[in-house]
Design goal:
The protein is of the alpha/beta class and 349 residues long. The protein folds into two domains: 4-202 and 321-347, TIM Barrel, CATH 3.20.20.70; 214-313, no CATH class. Helix content is 48%, strand content 13%. The protein contains 16 helices and eleven strands. The strands form two sheets. It has an eight-stranded parallel barrel, surrounded by seven helices. β2 (38-42), α3 (48-61) and β3 (66-70) form a beta-alpha-beta unit. α12 packs parallel to α14 (285-292). The longest helix has 21 residues, at 327-347.
C-alpha cells in the first residue's frame, strides 16, 4: 500500500510505531522496521552516548529505515540532532514542535522531520517552518493528550496543510487504517498497540495489566504533572489524586531524587526540564518536580514491572486489545484487514 508517507520515509506499509519512553528501544524498533513499518526509537530517557549506541544497535538488527524521537526543548537537543545526522538516521520525530533552526539543520542533512502535534495551529506552524510531515494525535491517544477526538482533529489538519498527515490516537487495526486514509491521512501511528506485542520489552506483569483493562480503566488525569495525561488508572494515580499538596510535594521530591541518582541529571536541569513542560500553565512546584521525573515513574512500570508504583501511559485502545502478536504478525494482520475492508467497501457500491 503506497501513500505519501511510505514514499517519504521509504517503508513498505503506512504504519508508524511511536517513540514511547522506556518502551521503544532497539528491539521493538528493529522488529517494527523489519515488518515494513516505521519504528521510532525513544531517546528522551537516554544519554547522548547511549543514543548513539542504541542507533547502532538498531542498525545491526535491520537494514530498513527507522527514526528517532527527540525532545525539542532538551538542553542538548543540538547534540542529539548531530548524532542523528552522523549516524544516518532516516527520520527525526519530535513530541514538541522543534525550532525552525533544528528543522533546517536536519533537512539540510537529508533527515525527514516529522513533529507530533495536537492542534491545527501547531501543524500550520511546523509546516510553515519546513516540516516534511506531521503526526496528529487526538484525545484518544496515550500520554500527554488534548481534548479533541482524532475524528475531529484529523480532517481539520488534513485540510490545513499540504504535507503528509499521519493519524494517531485510537488506531489498532486495518479498519482504522482505512478510515484514516479516507479522512485524507497518509498513514497511522500507534503506541499502545506496539507496546502490546511480543517484541516489546515491557514486563509481562505490566502487559497483563494492559490486557485486562477495559476502556473505562483508561483515564485522563492531571495529578501526575498538572497536564492532561492519559494512562491506566492505578494505585499511584488514585493516591496522587487523593493526596494533599504537601504530601504530593514530598512524594515528588523523593521520586525526583531517585531519578536524579539514576540518570546523573542535576537538580537544575531537572527543574529546567520540568518547567519547560509548563507551556505557560500555572503548575505548582510539586507538579513541576513530577513533570521533571515522569521518566522515573514510567521506568517503574515499563522496566521494573511495578504496576503499583509506576505510570502506565495508555491510549483508549488498550480496552479493545486482547493479544500479544509479534510486530511482523501485527503489521501483516493490519494490512490484510485493510485490504479486506477496501474490497468490501468497493464491492458494496
Amino acid at each position: 500500500m503506497e501513500t505519501p508517507l511510505t514514499r517519504l520515509v521509504g517503508v513498505r506499509h503506512p504504519i508508524v510505531q511511536t517513540g514511547m519512553g522506556w518502551v521503544a528501544g532497539p528491539r521493538l524498533v528493529s522488529a517494527t522496521a523489519n515488518a515494513g513499518a516505521l519504528g521510532i526509537l525513544a531517546s528522551a530517557t537516554m544519554s547522548v552516548d547511549r543514543l548513539r549506541e542504541a542507533i547502532r544497535e538498531v542498525r545491526s538488527r535491520t537494514d530498513a529505515p527507522f527514526g528517532v524521537n527527540l525532545r525539542a526543548d532538551a538542553s542538548d537537543a543540538g547534540d542529539r540532532v548531530r548524532v542523528l545526522i552522523d549516524e544516518g538516521v532516516r527520520v527525526a520525530s519530535f513530541a514538541l514542535a522543534p525550532s525552525r533552526e533544528l528543522i533546517a539543520e536536519l533537512k539540510d542533512a537529508g533527515v525527514v522531520v516529522i513533529p507530533s502535534i495536537g492542534a491545527r495551529r501547531h501543524a500550520e506552524k511546523v509546516a510553515g517552518w519546513g516540516a516534511d510531515a506531521v503526526i496528529v494525535q487526538g484525545g484518544e491517544g496515550g500520554g500527554h493528550t488534548g481534548e479533541v477526538a482524532t475524528t475531529v482533529l484529523l480532517p481539520q489538519v488534513v485540510d490545513a496543510v499540504d504535507i503528509p498527515v499521519v493519524a494517531a490516537g485510537g488506531f489498532f487495526d486495518g479498519r482504522g487504517l482505512v478510515a484514516a486514509l479516507a479522512y485524507g491521512a497518509a498513514g497511522v501511528a500507534m503506541g499502545t498497540r506496539f507496546l502490546l506485542t511480543s517484541d516489546s520489552t515491557v514486563p509481562d506483569a505490566v502487559k497483563a495489566r494492559y490486557l485486562a483493562a477495559t476502556v473505562r480503566d483508561v483515564t485522563v488525569t492531571r495529578a501526575v504533572d498538572g497536564l492532561p495525561h492519559r494512562m491506566l488508572r492505578t494505585e499511584l494515580v488514585d493516591a496522587l489524586e487523593r493526596s494533599s499538596r504537601a504530601r504530593t510535594l514530598l512524594h515528588s521530591v523523593r521520586r525526583a531524587a531517585g531519578y536524579r541518582k539514576l540518570s546523573g541529571t542535576s537538580w537544575r536541569r531537572m527543574l529546567r526540564d520540568g518547567r519547560a513542560l509548563r507551556h505557560g500553565k500555572d503548575l505548582t512546584w510539586s507538579q513541576v518536580l513530577l513533570a521533571a521525573n515522569t521518566p522515573m515513574l514510567l521506568k517503574a512500570s515499563m522496566v521494573d514491572g511495578r504496576t503499583d508504583l509506576g505510570v502506565m501511559a495508555s491510549g483508549q485502545v488498550a480496552g479493545v486489545i486482547d493479544d500479544l502478536p509479534s510486530c511482523a504478525e501485527l503489521v501483516e494482520r493490519i494490512m490484510m484487514e485493510a485490504e479486506d475492508t477496501r474490497r468490501r467497501l468497493t464491492a458494496s457500491r
